[in-house]
From TrEMBL:
Upper lineage: Eukaryota, Fungi, Dikarya, Basidiomycota, Agaricomycotina
Protein name, per record: Reverse transcriptase domain-containing protein
InterPro entries: DNA/RNA_pol_sf, RT_dom
Position of the signal peptide: none
Alphabetized SUPFAM superfamilies for the sequence: DNA/RNA polymerases
Residue ranges occupied by any Reverse transcriptase domain in the UniProt entry: 116-407
Length: 426
C-alpha cells in the first residue's frame, strides 16, 4: 500500500511536464508571464537586509522558543522538546557559572544553517528528507488522490525554514497585491468572503450584470514547476542568498509515504512545495501572484469599477482559491487564454469540474446565463458542461462562505445542522 501511494506521488512529479517545447521556448514563455509583474511589486535593492544575510542566533532562538511542542516528528524522530531541553540546560549552566563546558544548541543550529546558506547541502544529505502522512479528505477512500499529502519534516529543518519564512513575511506585503489574502499579515479570509457577498448585493442594486467565477486548482501545492518558481522569486528581486538557499533545500528533498507503519521507496521532490513546510504557503503566494497580475493588467478585462475603490474589483485570492468578478464587458474566453498561458508555464492545472459560477446583476441576466451557458452573449464558446452555474436560491461554497442569489444564510446552516443531527442519531 505504501509503495502504491509512493508511486502515485512519484508520477505526480512528472505529470503535466512540458515536453513539447525546447528549453529556449520554455524560458521565453516564462519570461512573458513574469513580465506582468509590475515594478511596484518588486523589492528595491537592499530593502530587506535580513533576506540577504545569514540567519542570526536571536532568530533561531526565538523560533525554537515559539515552536509548538507535542507535534509529530520527521524521520529522525527528534521532537522540538529535545532542542528546547538542551537549550534550557545550557542556559541554566551558564547562569550558575561553574565554568564547565555545556552544549550550546542554538549556536550549533545557527552554525549549521549558516553553512547551508553559504555552501548548500551535500548530495547525500538527509536534512530535507520527510515522510508523508496521507490524511483522508472525502469521496472514495481507496483513491490516494482523495488524501491530503501532509509531509512531516525534521524539526531542525522546520526551525530553519520557519526563520526564513519569518524573514520573508516582512517583505511579502510589498510583493503581493492586496487581492491576495492568504497567509499574509494584516489580511484575512473574511476580506474575500465579505467582498463576494458585497459584490452580489452591489451588482443587483446597481443593475450591473456579470458573474462571479470561482476557480479550483488540481493538486495546487504539488504541481508548481521549480524552474518557474525560482524565476518568479528572481523576478520579485529576492536576494540571491535567499533563493539559492531554498533551491539547495529542494535539490536534496526526498519523501517517503507512510501507510500503516510501512514506508514507500523515497521519491525526489522535483516540483511543488511541501505541505508541512513553514515556507510553503508564502512560496505558493509568490508563485500564483503573476497569474493575478496577468488578469489585473489585461487590457481585455475590466472588472467592476466602484466609486471610492482604489482599483477595479476583478480578482480575489486566498492562496490557490481564486474568484473572478467579470463585468458585462468581460469575456470568459479572454480569461481562459490567460489561465492557459499561466498553467502552461507554471505546471499548474485548473479543475474544470470544480469551477462554479454565480451570475450577478439583473434576474433576466441570471436566466440568460443559465439558458445560454455563456457569461457574455458574445462569448465564442459556451461554458464547459462540467461547471456548475448556480440556480436562484442555491448556494455555492467559496472558502468558508455559502453564497449565491436569493440565498438565505440561515437555511444553509439548517442543512448543515440537519446532517450533523442525522450523523449523531446513527
Amino acid at each position: 500500500m505504501a509503495n502504491l501511494a509512493g508511486s502515485y506521488h512519484t508520477e505526480l512529479q512528472d505529470a503535466g511536464c512540458d515536453t513539447a517545447h525546447t528549453p529556449v521556448e520554455c524560458k521565453a514563455n516564462t519570461q512573458s508571464v513574469l513580465n506582468a509583474v509590475p515594478a511596484s511589486q518588486k523589492l528595491p535593492p537592499d530593502s530587506f537586509p535580513s533576506l540577504a544575510t545569514p540567519v542570526r542566533l536571536s532568530e533561531v532562538e526565538c523560533t525554537l522558543f515559539t515552536a509548538k511542542s507535542g507535534t509529530a516528528t520527521g524521520l529522525d524522530g527528534l521532537p522540538y522538546e529535545l532542542w528546547k531541553k538542551l537549550n534550557d540546560h545550557h542556559q541554566k549552566a551558564t547562569k550558575l557559572g561553574t565554568g564547565e563546558p555545556t552544549f550550546d544548541v542554538i549556536t550549533m543550529l545557527t552554525t549549521v544553517f549558516n553553512d547551508i546558506q553559504t555552501y548548500g547541502l551535500l548530495p547525500d544529505s538527509t536534512f530535507s528528507q520527510g515522510w508523508m502522512c496521507p490524511i483522508y479528505k472525502k469521496n472514495d477512500k481507496t483513491e490516494i488522490a482523495n488524501y491530503h499529502p501532509i509531509t512531516l519534516l525534521n524539526t531542525d529543518y522546520k526551525i530553519f525554514t520557519k526563520v526564513l519564512a519569518l524573514q520573508l513575511t516582512a517583505a511579502v506585503p510589498q510583493m503581493i497585491h492586496t487581492d491576495q489574502a492568504g497567509f499574509i499579515p494584516g489580511r484575512s479570509i473574511f476580506d474575500q468572503t465579505c467582498l463576494a457577498k458585497a459584490m452580489i448585493s452591489y451588482a443587483e442594486a446597481m443593475d450591473e450584470n456579470g458573474a462571479i467565477v470561482t476557480l479550483n486548482q488540481k493538486k495546487a501545492y504539488d504541481k508548481i514547476d521549480h524552474t518557474y518558481l525560482w524565476c518568479t522569486l528572481t523576478t520579485f528581486n529576492l536576494p540571491d542568498l535567499f533563493i539559492c538557499t531554498i533551491c539547495s533545500l529542494y535539490k536534496t528533498a526526498f519523501t517517503q509515504v507512510a501507510v500503516n507503519g510501512c514506508f514507500s521507496t523515497p521519491y525526489h521532490v522535483t516540483r511543488g512545495v511541501r505541505q508541512g513546510d513553514p515556507l510553503s504557503c508564502l512560496l505558493f503566494d509568490l508563485a500564483i501572484e503573476p497569474l493575478a497580475c496577468l488578469l489585473c493588467n489585461s487590457p481585455k478585462l475590466s472588472g467592476y469599477s466602484i466609486s471610492g475603490a482604489p482599483h477595479p474589483v476583478l480578482v480575489s485570492l486566498f492562496a490557490d482559491d481564486t474568484a473572478l468578478y467579470l463585468s458585462s464587458t468581460d469575456h470568459y474566453d479572454d480569461v481562459l487564454e490567460i489561465l492557459d498561458s499561466w498553467c502552461h508555464t507554471s505546471g499548474m492545472k485548473f479543475n474544470i469540474n470544480k469551477t462554479e459560477i454565480v451570475p450577478i446583476g439583473s434576474l433576466a441576466h441570471h436566466d440568460q446565463v443559465r439558458m445560454t451557458w455563456c457569461i457574455h452573449i458574445n462569448d465564442r464558446h459556451v461554458l464547459n458542461p462540467g461547471m456548475n452555474v448556480a440556480n436562484e436560491g442555491h448556494p455555492i461554497h467559496y472558502l468558508s462562505l455559502w453564497m449565491g442569489n436569493k440565498v438565505d444564510d440561515a437555511n444553509t446552516w439548517s442543512l448543515i445542522l440537519d446532517k450533523v443531527r442525522t450523523a449523531i442519531a446513527h
